[in-house]
């Protein structure tokens, strides 16, 4: 693992919201603890932490009655200001962190993430979040098209199906975002 340049890197912590994390009960405790440690390490190295969340207004006017988000609308989840839409306490924002709100799967979809990153001059993204086949995949594809360099933190991501997670991490992501572990990230920052 090459050294990680804190001056050029931003960490994206994506969709670690109570309504989302609750679907990952079997992996969430260790996943969330490890992600929390990684975020603290990034902060201590001066690497910006950007939390990406998906929020909708009451009644979900941004959501059509069909498609991927229809289930979210029908179950009244991810409504801005509710406990379910809040970021889980284990990875909650701290002073200096940014929170970016999106309206679809990718962190770049209907958000100001691109503006924030370009203004900061950060071109290397370190991604973690749930689900691997959702926000992580969609964000990697969008960021690759925008010419960001990336790493995905394999043990700070999860999917409902472990084989899908492994396939994406091992077979699809390496061309765009080689996988590292949380420990490799922390060692890479220290190696600088």
Write the CATH homologous superfamily: Isochorismatase-like
Q: What integer value in Å does the Rg equal?
A: 16 Å
Determine the structural class based on helices, strands and strand pairing. Answer: alpha/beta
Number of helices: 7
Give the strand line-up of the largest sheet: 3-2-1-4-5-6
List low-pLDDT spans.
none
* CATH fold label: Rossmann fold
The 3D shape can be described as globular
Largest sheet: 6 strands, parallel
Highest-level CATH class? Alpha Beta
Give average pLDDT, whole number.
94
Number of strands: 6
Helix proportion range: 25-40%
Distance between the termini: 11 Å
CATH architecture: 3-Layer(aba) Sandwich
Give the count of structural domains.
1
Strand content: 15-25%
Order of helices and strands: EHHEHEHEHEHEH
Structure description:
There is one protein chain. The protein has 192 residues and is α/β, with parallel strands linked by helices. The protein is 35% helix and 19% strand. It has helices spanning 18-21, 28-44, 70-74, 113-120, 132-145, 162-172, 182-190; strands at 9-14, 49-54, 98-102, 124-130, 149-158, 179-180. Strands 3-2-1-4-5-6 form a six-stranded parallel β-sheet, sandwiched between helices. Helix 2 runs parallel beside helix 7 (182-190). The longest helix is centred in the N-terminal third of the chain and has 17 residues, at 28-44. The protein is globular and about 50 Å long.
């Amino acid at each position: 693992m090459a050294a990680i340049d804190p001056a050029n890197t931003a960490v994206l912590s994506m969709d670690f919201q109570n309504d989302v994390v609750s679907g990952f009960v079997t992996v969430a405790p260790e996943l969330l603890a490890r992600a929390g440690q990684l975020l603290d390490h990034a902060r201590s190295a001066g690497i910006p932490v950007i939390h990406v969340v998906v929020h909708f207004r009451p009644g979900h006017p941004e959501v059509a009655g069909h498609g991927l988000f229809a289930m979210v609308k029908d179950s009244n989840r991810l409504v801005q200001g509710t406990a379910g839409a809040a970021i889980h306490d284990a990875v909650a924002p701290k002073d200096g962190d940014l929170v970016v709100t999106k309206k679809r799967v990718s962190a770049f979809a209907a958000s100001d993430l691109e503006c924030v990153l370009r203004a900061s001059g950060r071109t290397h993204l370190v991604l973690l979040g749930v689900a691997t086949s959702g926000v992580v995949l969609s964000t990697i594809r969008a960021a690759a098209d925008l010419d960001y360099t990336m790493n995905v933190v394999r043990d700070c991501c999860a999917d409902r199906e472990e084989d899908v997670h492994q396939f994406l991490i091992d077979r699809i992501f390496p061309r765009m975002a080689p996988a590292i572990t949380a420990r490799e990230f922390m060692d890479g920052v220290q190696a600088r």
